[in-house]
Every structure is written in C-alpha cells, then in structure tokens.
Amino acid sequence: MVQYANLLFPLYVYPINNAWESLISAASQYPDVTFTAVINPSTGPAPDANGCPEKNYVEGIASLNKYPNIHTMGHVHTANRWDCGNLGTDICFCTAPAANVKANITTYANWATKGCAGWSTINLDIHIDSIFIDEAPGEDGGECLSCMTDLTNHAKTALTSATGGEVLFNAGAATDLSYFDVADAIVILESTQAEYEMIPDIGVRNGNGKYYNKSPIIIHSASNATDKIQRDTSTVLGLDRDAFHSLFYTDRLTDRYAYFPYDWAEIVKEVNAVAQANKAILGGQD
Question: Are strands 70-77 and 33-39 parallel, antiparallel or unpaired?
Fold first, then answer.
C-alpha cells in the first residue's frame, strides 16, 4: 500500500467511552491518509498475568486494526535515568536494561497470537505492526549504536506483520546520522511550532536531505489557523517539498498526547489535501 501522507499520532489517550473514535472516523473518511498510532498503555505494554493488555486496550486496538490505513506502533522506552548533561536534568540514553526493553517488544509482538479477550469477544485482532522506541539518543557520537542496533534487530525478528515491523526512534532532536542506518525512521524534531519556525533548515538534521523519507517530526503548541496548518502539512509531507516520513501536528499546549488536537478535523482535512496532491504526483499508484 502506497503511503501518500502519514499522520503520526502518539495516541496516549485512554481507550474508554469511544475515546479513539475521532481517529477511526478520520481513517474511514480519508482512506488515502496513513494514520500511525503509537499505543502506550503505561510506558510500555503493561501486560496482565496472561500477557494481554487490559480489556479497554484490547477493544481499542481491535477497533484500529479493522482499518488498513491505521498502523499501530507499540511504545517502549530506553532510559531509566534523567540526570545526565551539564545540568543533570537530561535523558540518560540507553540506561534501561536491554533485556527489559526486549521483553516489552516481545510482549507487543505476542499480542498477535495471544487470543486476548475484550469485554464481550475473545480472540480479537490486536496485532501491533511496529515499534516506537522513545528516549532515543541524540547527538551522542554513536555511543548507543550497539544497543539500538540490538533492540532494532530484536524487534525485526519478533514482529512479522504485513508492514514489515517498522522500528521508529524518537530522538526528538538532531541525532547522530549513523542511527539512520539502523532505524526505519527517526523523529528529528519534537517541539513547539515556534521552535520549528526558528530552524533555518531542518534538513541539516537528516543529512541535508539524505534521510528525508526516514524523518518524522512532531509539532505541538501550534496555531489552529488554517493557513498555518496548510503551510506545515504541505511543507513537511508534500512530495514537492520536504517529503518527510510523517508528521504529528497539535494545537494543544499541555496534555498534547493525552487528547486529540482541538482542531483535529481541520488538521486531518489538510493532511488529506497533501495526500491527494502526492497521489497525483505519483500517478495514482496504489
């Protein structure tokens, strides 16, 4: 399936009372948009004694998996200390035991065959397509390269989904370019719209465009003005512009991943407009 435009969504919204319905409705309305939903029950899979997520997550993930244009990513984290850097407040990359991270990845992978039960149905399809590795290293000179390669190889082995088990690193900033040879994609910006606008050339963060199609960005605290949404979605996702891997755009200042953007309808509408433009450039490939 060709991805005309990929909307990355850290879906840290608790799935109760149809809380994910806005995503499902958008996927149904805009089949040419890929929605990549990062699932994060509790900084990882948080399985029960049987290795399954709680029933609300079973029901929620099963509802997402009914749509071919929704891809699910399981969230894992790779740090267990945040006292690094000159001020002693930075993330300490690769400090979480690799065995623990691998165990979380395996748990996500096993959901495809666990036969986990929802509230009224057993053996629902709750497969997870890919892995989202949070707290990934930035410009560390490749110090964590061995660790991140090991985790990626484990994920690729564990996941056998139709998507190929994509592995995304969330650096959220500039990263050592060697990591692009390991990950399928690396978030090179997770910041405010104001900071995004101050960066003269964000392509410097992906090898001056060498890894443009492996570079998602996350923009929060953004304007909900239509012209700003149009500008950033077309610039980031347009094949005639940056043509980056994916984009998350939210106008929320706080709790930005725990709730849908205020102007979600306009955001997905504009992402779809980019998808249609990209589809025309590609000659309507499916």
Answer: parallel
> How far apart are the two ends of the chain, measured CA to CA in Å?
6
Dist. CA 173–CA 164, nearest whole Å? 26
Q: Give pLDDT, residue 93.
A: 94
**Looking at per-residue confidence, does 286 or 131 come out higher?**
131
Of 131, 127, 151, residue with least CA distance to 76: 131
- Distance, CA of 209 to CA of 88 (rounded, Å): 33
C-alpha closest to that of 273 among 229, 214, 219 = 229
Name the E strands within the chain: 5-11, 33-39, 70-77, 130-134, 167-170, 185-187, 189-192, 217-220, 247-249
Question: Exposed, middle or buried, 108 (CB in 10 Å: 0-12/13-18/19+)?
Answer: buried
Q: Which of 39, 74, 81 is nearest to 57 (CA)?
A: 39
pLDDT tens figures, 141-163: 999 999 999 999 999 999 865 55
Residue-averaged pLDDT of the chain:
95
Query: Is residue 164's pLDDT more than 80?
Result: no
For residue range 49-75, what is the model confidence (pLDDT) as tens digits?
899 999 999 999 999 999 999 999 999
* Residue 9, helix vs strand vs coil: strand
Q: How far apart are CA 254 and CA 65, in angstroms?
A: 28
Contact present, 7 and 269 (Cβ < 8 Å)? no
Predicted confidence at residue 122, as pLDDT, reads 84
Between 264-281 and 226-237, two packed helices, what is the crossing angle to 10 degrees?
A: 40
Distances (CA, A) of 88 to 85, 91, 173, 176: 5, 9, 18, 21
